[in-house]
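Render this sequence as a predicted structure.
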Amino acid sequence: MTPARRTVGTTGTATTIAQLAEAAGFEVEWSDAHGHPQRVPEETLAVLLERIGLPCSSAAQIRQSAAALEAENAGRKLPPLISVDCDRAVALPVAGVKSGSHYRIELESGAVIDGRFTAPRGEAPLLAPIGEPGYHSLLLNDTRITLAVAPQRCHTVADAWHALHGEAAHAPPLWGIAAQLYGLRRADDGGMGDYTALASLAIASAKRGAHALAISPTHAMFSAEPQRFSPYAPSSRLWLNVAHIDPAAVFGTEAAQAAIASVHAADERAALEALPLIDWPPAVRNKLRVLRALFERFCAEERAHGSPRAREFEDFCTRGGRALEDHARFEALHAAQLEAHERNGKDKGRAPHHWRDWPEALRNPRAPEVDAFAGEHRHEVDFHLFLQWLAAKGLSHAQHAARDAGMAIGLIADLAVGCDSAGSHAWSWPEDMLQGVSVGAPPDLFNQAGQSWGLTTFSPRAMRTQGFRAFIDMLRAAFAHAGGVRIDHILGLRRLWLVPEGESARNGAYLRYPLGDLLRLIALESWRHRAVVIGEDLGTVPPGFRERLAERGLSGIRVLWFERDGSRFMAPTQWDANGVATTTTHDLPTVCGWWSGTDIEWRHRIGQTAPRADGRDPVKLAREERAADRDALWSAFQHAGVAAPDVPAPPADEAPLDEALAFVAATPCPLVTYPLEDLLALEDQPNLPGSIDEHPNWRRRLTVPVDEMFDDDTFSDRLLAVDRARAASREATAAPSVTPATPAPSAPSPDRS
């Protein structure tokens, strides 16, 4: 390994690139999935430091970067936001406060606390504990600082039940359904799932005893480039996917049909609806043509005369503020840039798919040229505001429908780990985002090449210096229309694997994040919105991480395939009582697909089967291992009493689906979510990680409409069995699965700001 370059820091001590990286939050040394120690090469560290704004290509740059970090970390200036725990003393940086200074705390409730620091010289000045959760203001001299005071834990599944049935009611084991929103089917849906189908699914499943409906991400995508349709690579996590709007939801069936006829979209819609897979580009374009016709009618008949609906729209735009306006401007600009490129000919340079390829003046959302564009194209910008309004109304209606039908939780939104660096979020708030890197994962047992997801996310340095503004806004957007949030790859709250753009996923490093601050903010927003939080904690989990989540009332995910002790599948009673149980996830095989080995065949078909050094057939070996796993799982079913004893495991083409559902139902987890793919006995999984076009990721549609699903006796009987199985597990959960030392405070009205 090349020796680390050294320079002299501002204090006269020698500084290496590795030391600079450590000070910046990178883990220079780490352990891989096998527990083997690894060290990040200096060349990789140097590139990553450059990408996060700490140049280090010369001795002078290293000194300057080290000095900048030292100034940030020395605590000479109080940060704009300090997160603290409720009823715990608040320690402030020594260098930021003088002994004897007076302070005032203005609580959200209107109460005021006046005080004076009296800490001995050199010791951290303390604020007295604050017993009221919320965002309070600390006034110190001429400085105003936000104190984010978090409750001890998030709103839990038990809290959701008590909110519905009263504190005296014991929270029973609950269950719900997990669905891919885009794959839902109903009559006249234009070829993809929409918010109206979601509402129908919520109502029908609630009638069968479900208390939650976990859904795929609803983040905003790229209207001008509908070929970008992975819900986990959104344009923005602040706004919604307009492709899921039902044109008839707000304006009625007659108006929607008139709009469809006016743009001659009916025949294409019928053809798209007949397809077994979603054809995203034409389906989105067709939907947008119809919605544009509705917009023109809305402007002419309602907005021009100030109707109640028009006023509601204007209020929505006002509440959305700069962030909503920025997203709408981005959508209009993106389309204009691509159209200009098409007009000028494709040989006129690279297509402006990324905003970094736009004219320089348009890359800055605060530039006067962007204001001028918005003024000249006001109608087009307003169209995208209109789309967000309709999407918000559609998703909000689905959540209200779920709760009105009796669900304790309702929708569980999915919060993606990052967003596309070419999208509106990165364009609108570049100072908050990491630039020139991709979030991913190092090589592990399941992906030996590692993963680079092509996503960006928040800079931890920017989080601190800007008072976690962007993170809080994102949380509020996620909670806005849901009773819970699933945080994808929650391990990223502690550290994220960053890969320089264009590099192999192996050539990355972990960057640490302020886990304590982020967990407090999540707990605070969960409490304010009365919404549960679930963390996707699968993969290489650092020691103690799951325990920290549990302390905050934040549930992990426990998946049937992974709950093992060596070759043995763990009994349901051994599963983590703080987790949310499930048979599978969107990235893993369904029960029928796992039992038959469909996932093995798919991986071999698309070239994901690595040859073995010993020359053995890897596919044959995988099938043999799966046969042994089937026997082990069947044995676990028998020991749990959900499968007949002394009966051999069913053959590969006869998956014991009902036994698998009952097995997971018998766990002590407070909530079990069953994927629709398993409830419908489907073999194919929604997404095959590591593939792009080789597998129809994010395109599979249900074969029958939502309402007809519940008319099917097999499906309905399966839901009835699940409901009874969860009720039967009540004796094993005589107390709430997460019992905090002291109860969480009562939540105020949800914060929709």
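Summary. Residues 6-73 form one domain. The chain has a mean pLDDT of 91.
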